[in-house]
Design goal:
- It is a single chain.
- By secondary structure, this protein is an all-alpha fold.
- It has 17 helices and two strands.
- It has a single domain, classed as Farnesyl Diphosphate Synthase, CATH 1.10.600.
- It has a two-stranded antiparallel ribbon.
- The relative contact order is 0.11.
Length: 324
């Protein structure tokens, strides 16, 4: 399942978002423009802007500010990825060399900071306290998520509850924000923002848990980065947590060695994948991701009935069943 047809439906809207992104990434400093050009050339699915635009369409929100907000939400996501790649020492992103690999850590840190501050400056100009509160909250949650994950790196006893909290803070809250921002420009009840937020949390959780699964099973070409990279970065995610619950101390020691040595010498990728499959850990992870997706879709059904609501349901299905 893909969302290529849906993206075509929003082609003109997304072109306006891209125009805003290009304008927002232009600075007075040459190196920032070079980083901005590189980021634009290696863009992702634009899933978060699509969620925002779809939500606006579902609610009948035709306010032009939605294009600006969609660009802001994508740039916040971009700044997060830039910083994540520095922290993780990642060399690839979306099948291309990462920003830090091309420009170095110093430039990348400052470029990420500049993008964040640009986003808040743009939001401030709207003079909308709901908007500022939503953006401040999500940025705080995402930074907390990164710190929480760093504190748990290379710790093999991470719990399901802890990995869910990381997923919520690092990914799901931004999905939630994208959904909420689709209502900005309307007169809305607080209950609507709460509902949109819950939908976004559930879709975001499904997305992140599916990402954790794909790290083990996806084709590297589709994944856009080396396979089984999370464990080499010291990240014990849901599939491995479930497998560790079923394995003995010797296996745990092998996993600890992989994290410490940053190499699959203690246990091969093929053997680890076979264990994940045979134990049912991958299947259970898929089930949990699907449950989050289904909860999101269930709440989407309460939104105004129109073709855009049906498209959002398709997004929920894409998130759960995607292969990259």
């Amino acid at each position: 399942m893909d969302i290529s047809n849906l993206i075509l439906t929003f082609k003109s809207d997304l072109e306006k978002v891209e125009k805003n992104i290009s304008q927002f990434l232009m600075g007075d400093i040459h190196v920032l423009n070079r980083v901005g050009d590189y980021i634009k050339a290696s863009k992702g699915k634009r899933l978060r802007p699509i969620l925002l635009l779809l939500t606006a369409k579902i609610l009948g929100n035709e306010n032009e500010v939605r294009y600006k907000l969609a660009a802001i939400i994508e740039l916040i996501h971009t700044a997060t990825l830039v910083h994540d790649d520095i922290i993780d020492n990642s060399e690839m992103r979306r099948g291309n060399p990462s920003v830090n690999n091309v420009f170095g850590n110093q430039v990348s840190v400052l470029a990420g900071d500049w993008i964040y501050m640009t986003c808040f400056n743009l939001a401030l100009k709207e003079r909308n306290f709901d908007l500022l509160e939503i953006l401040m909250e999500v940025t705080l949650k995402m930074v907390e998520g990164e710190l929480f994950q760093l504190d748990l790196l290379e710790k093999i006893d991470i719990t399901k509850k802890e990995t869910f909290e990381i997923a919520k803070r690092k990914t799901a809250y931004l999905f939630s924000t994208a959904m909420k921002l689709g209502a900005i420009g309307l007169n809305y009840e607080k209950s609507l923002l709460e509902k949109l937020g819950r939908i976004g949390i559930n879709l975001g959780m499904a997305f992140q848990l599916k990402d954790d699964i794909l790290d083990y099973i996806a084709d590297e070409k589709n994944l856009g980065k080396p396979k089984m990279r999370d464990l080499l970065e010291g990240k014990v995610t849901l599939p491995l947590i479930l497998l560790l619950e079923r394995e003995d101390g010797d296996f745990r020691k092998k996993i600890e060695r992989v994290m410490k040595e940053k190499d699959y010498g203690a246990i091969s990728r093929d053997i680890l994948l076979k264990k994940l499959i045979d134990s049912g850990a991958l299947e259970e992870s898929e089930k949990i991701a699907m449950e989050y997706g289904e909860r999101g879709i269930e709440e989407i059904m309460d939104l105004p009935e129109n073709k855009y609501r049906d498209m959002l349901i398709e997004i929920g299905k894409f998130i759960v069943y995607r292969e990259k």
